[in-house]
Write a structure and sequence with these properties.
The complex is a heterodimer. Chain A is of the alpha+beta class. Helices cover about 40% and strands about 15% of the residues of chain A. In chain A, helix 3 runs antiparallel to helix 13, helix 11 crosses helix 12 and helix 17 crosses helix 19. Chain A starts with 5 loop residues before the first helix and ends with a helix. By secondary structure, chain B is of the alpha+beta class. In chain B, strands 3-2-1-4-5 form a five-stranded antiparallel β-sheet, with helices on one face. The longest helix of chain B has 16 residues. In chain B, about 35% of the residues are buried. Classes of the chains: A alpha+beta, B alpha+beta.
């Protein structure tokens, strides 16, 4: 993991003390709410429906066990004993008192954490493939480049007041686990024919009111020029992006209005005239940061662990968990384990302080003290020896973190919705809970196969409904909660936006609607190997419309 | 014109509060001062402005309510949730 240097440490400590003074001035009346609001937002502090909410940055979704223990401590001491992991790989506390927030930030600084770049019209906390450094087929650890972007973007004077917020995600495999195409910039690390390291650069994706898939504006950018090219994109956006209309201020609108070709031309022109050597990092600095992400000291192990294989064959419950929650690792004898934060009937993404402490202990014991947060609101231990999987499974089951549903229909993304969020029009979490309970039969879940249900409580789409295989959007119809369903969305390397299937359903009918969609899929698929998304792409929306609306 | 009460978030902790008949900002909607008519509503707004200046609350606003056998009920669903808190048990994703 990256370790702060003296500059990083001082920068974060200075920020804590600056915010402490700002909070004091707010409480003493020197600052009005209008004056204070932009200051608190720069430190991740929102005012939600019932309380303040503090959003803490987890850069590229990587936590050390010490950091996770600190989050558990903060949950216990300053909040209500739990935290909520988000689709931005961050953590939110829902009940902090204003006066406590400087102390919380000071505690975070002790473990090299903060809430910078979690709000405001800046370059937000960069996200990554949550299997970074472990995924089979990876070019190299994408977090090297995330960290370079983090250092470059933090308090970047030119890009601290953009037309709107700006999100960058990075991956390094063919498979896209970071939803690149729905980010302002998506970067896929690859090698060209000569073996040179570079990026496919995608620009102008996003969800919200106007969902758009990012366009590739450069199939290959030499990795050494990443920062200058990002500056060229950001400068073009900063100059031409709209500031007069909140709904048209994201880069996706700019790319669409001038056209991807013209936008690309503008970026390339800007980039060509830049002094690259003043912006791009020298190779020695890239190497310094790369060294922080050197692989942990893996043992030399056989590809398959015999004991693990034996147990898997003899224990169906263990085998079911392995099939859903364990992924292949690039290192022989190791595996990647996803910890489901989606217990059936539970709240997607919530973890108690006790669970956080226990996961930190398990990370120390089984995964080199490192934890990942996934954008699908789960946690992962990414460097587990296959021979330890049995013991880890038992420990996770005791913590209610071993529901064998990763990637299946009850692994639901849900935003906080109207239970917490002041922007929401409808609740998300209770809908996720009811769907999860309705679909919890494990044999049926496995039988349905991969199915991504994503729920947002408003058009801002924090719950990623546009890219759900089944997307659910909460709307307010004359004071009542209704839910509009989209089908066929996907956030992976075959990204697509869901299509609205028809009129919205009442809260009472939405679970029936999801079950009807699943039943329709099961009746029409070519076989268990044809996933929901593939079947939908083959047969289209009509059979689903028929099943949902014809008889009613 | 519907009956109205004034609500805000308390500055120190963000808690949902309502202005009561005796001029306190309280967490119980039942204790809220209910305004009938424009003059009474304007008085609530003025009290809200004073509370903002006095650093007690943030962003006060009027909400429409009905009074029935179950007491004061906000008309909008959002405000009903604000009054009662999240409709889900807190923490850990456990069934509640």
């Amino acid at each position: 993991m990256y370790q702060y240097d003296a500059h990083d440490r001082q920068l974060v400590l200075d920020r804590v003390e600056q915010f402490r003074g700002q909070v004091q001035r707010r409480l003493s009346g020197e600052l009005s709410e209008e004056e204070f609001k932009p200051l608190r937002l720069m430190n991740g502090l929102y005012l939600q429906l019932h309380a303040y909410m503090l959003r803490i940055a987890i850069p590229y979704g990587t936590l050390s066990s010490a950091q996770l223990r600190k989050l558990a401590h903060i949950a216990r001491r300053y909040d209500r004993g739990y935290g909520h992991f988000t689709t931005r790989q961050n953590l939110q506390f829902n009940w902090p008192a204003l006066a406590d927030t400087p102390d919380i930030l000071a505690e975070l600084a002790e473990v090299e954490m903060h809430a910078i770049q979690t709000s405001g019209n800046c370059i937000r906390n960069v996200t990554a493939d949550h299997f970074a450094g472990a995924a089979a087929g990876e070019i190299e650890d994408p977090r090297i480049w995330c960290e370079i972007i983090r250092q470059w973007s933090t308090f970047h004077p030119e890009f601290s007041f953009l037309p709107r917020k700006f999100k960058i995600a990075v991956t390094a495999t063919e498979q896209d686990r970071a939803a690149l195409r729905v980010h302002d910039i998506g970067l896929r690390l690859l090698r060209d024919h000569a073996g040179q390291l570079g990026f496919e650069v995608m620009v102008g994706g996003g969800q919200g009111r106007t969902p758009v898939l990012a366009k590739t504006i450069r199939p290959f950018l030499a990795a050494e020029h990443l920062l200058s090219y990002l500056e060229a994109i950001l400068r073009t956006y900063n100059l031409l992006g709209r500031r007069d209309n909140l709904y048209k201020s994201r880069i996706k609108i700019l790319v669409d209005s001038v056209g991807p070709e013209e936008f690309t031309r503008l970026v390339e022109e800007e980039w060509r005239q830049m002094p690259h050597d003043r912006i791009d990092l020298p190779e020695a600095e890239i190497q310094r940061i790369r060294a922080h992400f050197a692989p942990p000291p893996f043992e030399a192990l056989p590809q398959r662990d015999a004991e693990f294989e034996l147990r898997r064959r003899g224990d169906p419950a263990f085998a079911r968990w392995v099939r859903a929650n364990v992924s292949p690792h690039k290192q022989p004898g190791y595996a990647i384990v996803t910890l489901s934060l989606k217990p059936h009937g539970g709240i997607p993404g919530d973890a108690t302080a006790e669970q956080m402490d226990a996961v930190a202990d398990l990370a120390d014991r089984y995964s080199f003290g490192e934890i990942r947060v996934t954008h699908e609101q789960n946690l992962a231990l990414v460097h587990v020896r296959q021979r330890d999987l049995g013991a880890l499974w038992h420990s996770l089951a005791e913590l209610n973190l071993a529901t064998p549903n990763v990637g299946l229909a009850t692994d639901i993304i849900a935003c906080p919705g109207l239970d917490y969020c002041s922007l929401a029009n409808a609740r998300s979490i209770p809908v996720a809970q009811r769907i999860s309970l309705a679909l919890q039969d494990l044999d049926r879940l496995t039988g349905v196969g991969e199915l991504k249900i994503k729920i947002s409580g408003c058009i801002n789409a924090c719950g990623h409904h546009h890219v759900g295989h089944i997307g659910i959007l909460g709307v307010d119809k004359k004071g009542e909660e209704f839910y509009q369903i989209t089908l066929g969305g996907s956030a992976d390397e075959t990204a697509s936006l869901g299509e609205i299937v028809g009129p919205a359903f009442s809260s009472e009918r939405v679970v029936w609607a999801v079950e009807t969609i699943i039943a329709t899929y099961l009746s029409l698929r070519r076989g268990p190997e044809e996933r929901f998304l593939d079947a939908y792409r083959r047969i289209g929306p009509d059979p689903f419309k028929e099943a949902l609306y014809a008889a009613h | 014109m519907a009956a109205q009460v004034i609500t805000a978030n308390r500055l120190v902790d963000g808690a949902v509060v309502y202005l009561s008949a005796d001029g306190q900002w309280v967490q119980s909607l039942e204790e809220a001062s209910v305004a009938e008519g424009e003059a009474a509503a304007a008085a609530l707004v003025a009290a809200g402005d004073r509370a903002v200046a006095g650093r007690l609350v943030v962003a006060p606003y009027l909400i429409e309510v009905d009074r029935g056998p179950e007491g004061i009920q906000p008309r909008r669903y959002r405000e009903r949730l604000r009054a009662t808190g999240p409709s889900i048990p807190f923490g850990g994703g456990m069934k509640g």
